[in-house]
């Protein structure tokens, strides 16, 4: 680079210092990327809490893609570990998922209301 021997040492020293800084930055970036991407990669085991969460779980699994009675929904919630009364399930389906959120609709078949995801 520079023909003087002392000048080359200065430039070589600066290049080595820059290389060291770059390696340090790459190490820090890789640590940050690991921390950020590990969190995103973790699947959420149970994101659904309470009775609303249990019904949301059934919706996400596609259980309510076909018409289901309250008793069928209640039984499936029990299998998933959500143990609530039939009356509580019926009320939350009507009030929360039909009236407020408008996620579900219901169809009357043979005098039995059946709930299904609204398309």
Describe the structure.
62% of the residues lie in helices and 12% in strands. The relative contact order is 0.10. It has 4 helices and 3 strands, in the order H-H-E-H-H-E-E. The model is unreliable at 40-44 (pLDDT under 50). It has a 3-stranded antiparallel beta sheet. It is mostly helical and 119 residues long. The longest helix is centred in the first third of the chain and has 37 residues, at 5-41. The protein has 2 domains: 1-42; 50-117, Orthogonal Bundle (Arc Repressor Mutant, subunit A). The chain has helices spanning 5-41, 50-60, 70-80, 86-100, and strands at 68-69, 104-109, 112-117.
Per-chain topology:
Layout: H1 5-41, H2 50-60, E1 68-69, H3 70-80, H4 86-100, E2 104-109, E3 112-117
Antiparallel strand pairs: 1-3, 2-3
């Amino acid at each position: 680079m520079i023909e003087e021997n002392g000048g080359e040492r200065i430039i070589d020293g600066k290049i080595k210092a820059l290389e060291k800084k770059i390696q340090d930055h790459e190490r820090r970036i890789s640590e940050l990327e690991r921390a950020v991407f590990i969190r995103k990669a973790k699947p959420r085991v149970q994101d659904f809490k309470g009775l609303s969460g249990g019904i949301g779980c059934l919706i996400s699994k596609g259980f309510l893609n076909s018409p289901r009675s309250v008793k069928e929904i209640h039984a499936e919630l029990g299998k998933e570990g959500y143990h609530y009364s039939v009356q509580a399930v019926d009320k939350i389906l009507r009030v929360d998922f039909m009236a407020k959120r408008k996620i579900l609709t219901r169809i009357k078949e043979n005098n039995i209301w059946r709930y299904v995801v609204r398309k």
